[in-house]
Amino acid sequence: MSSLILTTTSRLILPAALIFSIYVLLRGHNEPGGGFIGGLIAAAGIAVHAIPRGRTGLIALLRVWPKALIGAGMLLGIAAGIPALLLAEPFLTQQWPFASLPIGTTLVFDVGVYLVVIGSVLTFLSYYLEN
Amino acid sequence: MMNADLLLTLPILFPALGIALCALFWSNKNAQRAINLAASIGLLGSAIALMAAVHDGTVLVTRFGNWDAPFGIVFVADMFAAAMVLITGVMAVAVGVYGLAGNIEPKENAFYHLLYQGLLLGVTGAFLTGDIFNLYVWFEIMLISSFGLLALGGTRDQLDAGVKYVTLNLIATTFFLISVAFLYGLTGTLNMADIARVLPTVENQGLVTTIAVMFLMAFGAKAAVFPLFYWLPAAYHTASAPIVAIFAALLTKVGVYAIIRTFTLLFDGDAGYTGPIVAGIAIFTMVTGVLGAASHFDIRRILSFHIISQIGYMLFGIVVATPLAVGGSILYVIHHIVVKANLFLLAGVVNRAGGSFDLKKTGGLYRTMPMLGVLFLIPALSLAGLPPLSGFWSKFTVIKASLDAEHYILAGAGLMVGTLTLYSMVKIWNEAFWKAAPENATAAMQSWQADRRTRLIMLSPIVALACVTLTIGFFAEPFVDFSMRAGAQLLDQSVYIDAVFGPAEQLAEVNP
């Protein structure tokens, strides 16, 4: 579906959505937000980019098939639980390697969720896109 | 020695890793096959480790994220749960190897391996979880994966079957969700051990019985009991052999597991009320299943109806509720999973070598492959309950338990259904193996005999599972002993509750 309006506006919407989605992802640490809603915002931005450009446009932007994003996200989610197991604590127990910085395994998990959501939405979308 | 956290996490970690890696390498079929097999073997290995840790009667608990029960989600492994996880691991490897023979073409590279691991993840999680809402989540994972596997081929039949399957199962899970909501409203908790200690103090015991019956309906539909079994014969006969084998092994058994778990842990007090209902359900399930099978000539349909029939036996434990009966039910589930999956795997071989799943279009397999006939007879006669095979011991235990408790109608129905099961098995034997091969079947046989690799891949899991059946049959003592102890452990709720909350902690306050 070639649409001049979508093609033009998507150039603005895509970066704005991606930046905002990362803001929401990080904000989810202590306030409403997080990987799920951030992933939806990012996927919406990418969808606006992909709808006028078709499946080739989507792959050109992502560089990988969206299914691979699901796999990568799930791997991150699992990886976030592993350090706790290595320290003989229950799976997914939060670990904070830096005493002063609030960066820990929960963020890794949230990024995993972020990728899984983007991947899932775009996988569904890719079946409806024109080539 | 591994700690409890690791032991309880690994059985779900391997399938989860399998899903993630299959999605990552989704365009590479060989990589997916390797991942699928490796994850299944990992599941089996971790299940063996788990079994080694709990077989003496200890109950292991892990609290995910280190959130204390009843607020966080706990995983609990007692002997019953560990046995179910172990048998899931055995099936995962056996059917996983069988699936490499290329039965799922042409869609294998798309989703088969990913959904297969998804099914294993859902099943394993459902066996291990100690949280009733979490159980719902695992049911959903299982449902979505199995729907995907069922509709994988994309033929008209399969989509039709898939829609029926998913609709009827969604109704069941919705029922489950509503019952969980009621239970939460009544007890204020979702942790199963916590519910178990709060439920007896609830004032409105009438509502507890109502919820128990709602749970029975929800899990009964999952387990395919009378009169909620319609989705099973509508769906199973359309899938390819490895997919239907793993379905037959695991899907209904998760329902049976959930029934046994909730009715031993949560709703034990009102067995007098629900007992006669379950007894009726068990009898009708056995009889309708076995009679339904008698009228069919497609092997997959015959075997599908027999799944329903056998589910009836597994309910004996809930009806009678003695350690012998519950232990007998556990033994029955273990025996049945091995035997039933093996029969479906054999059905796949009959289809490959004999040309069709339809008994009227195939035949003469005993003449060309006498050993295959023997391999068929082991699970078939075991299903019917002939000594000294595994089915004899499990039928013997549940029927003896029902006679001890003076449930004569139940015991009589069990014995009669065993005989009728033999009829169906003999029918398959006569049609597929004994009678002369029809004209059109020779081409299939020639291609089967020419392809040595496929034969090896398809027959080795069948031989392995037949050996398991023979082992349970000839060395029944440790298996019966284990089941009896697992049954006794299930009937003593305090073991489970103490494992989750620690024995010292008393029930401090109870929500009205």
UniProtKB/TrEMBL annotation, chain A:
The organism is Neoaquamicrobium microcysteis
What is the residue range of the signal peptide feature?
none
Q: Does the keyword Transmembrane helix apply?
A: yes
The entry's family comment says: Belongs to the CPA3 antiporters (TC 2.A.63) subunit B family.
Q: How does it sit in the membrane?
A: Multi-pass membrane protein
**GO CC terms in record:** plasma membrane
Span of domain Na+/H+ antiporter MnhB subunit-related protein:
5-123
Chief location bin: membrane
Q: Which UniProt keywords apply?
A: Cell membrane, Membrane, Transmembrane, Transmembrane helix
The keyword ATP-binding belongs to this UniProt entry's keyword annotation: no
Q: What protein does this entry describe?
A: Na(+)/H(+) antiporter subunit B
Q: Record's Pfam families?
A: MnhB
User: Per the UniProt record, which residue ranges are transmembrane?
Assistant: 12-29, 35-52, 64-87, 107-129
Q: Which InterPro entries match?
A: CPA3_antiporter_subunitB, MnhB
Q: What is the annotated localization of this protein?
A: Cell membrane
Automatic annotation (TrEMBL), chain B:
Which parts of the sequence belong to the NADH:quinone oxidoreductase/Mrp antiporter transmembrane domain? 131-420
- InterPro entries per UniProt: CPA3_Na-H_Antiporter_D, NADH_UbQ_OxRdtase, ND/Mrp_TM
Q: Which GO terms describe its biological process?
A: ATP synthesis coupled electron transport
How is it placed in the membrane, per its record? Answer: Multi-pass membrane protein
Transmembrane as UniProt keyword: yes
Q: Where in the cell is it found?
A: Cell membrane; Membrane
Highest taxon above the source species: Bacteria
Which residues, by range, are in coiled-coil regions? none
The transmembrane segments are 6-27, 34-53, 73-98, 110-129, 135-153, 165-186, 206-232, 239-260, 272-291, 303-324, 330-350, 371-388, 408-426, 456-476
Q: Which GO terms describe its cellular component?
A: plasma membrane
UniProt entry keywords in alphabetical sequence = Cell membrane, Membrane, Transmembrane, Transmembrane helix
Please state the protein's primary subcellular location. membrane
Q: What is a single molecular function from GO for this protein? A: NADH dehydrogenase (ubiquinone) activity
**Stated family:** Belongs to the CPA3 antiporters (TC 2.A.63) subunit D family.
What PANTHER family is this protein classified in?
NA(+)_H(+) ANTIPORTER SUBUNIT D1, NADH DEHYDROGENASE
Question: In its UniProt entry, what is this protein called?
Answer: Na+/H+ antiporter subunit D
High-level lineage: Bacteria, Pseudomonadati, Pseudomonadota, Alphaproteobacteria, Hyphomicrobiales
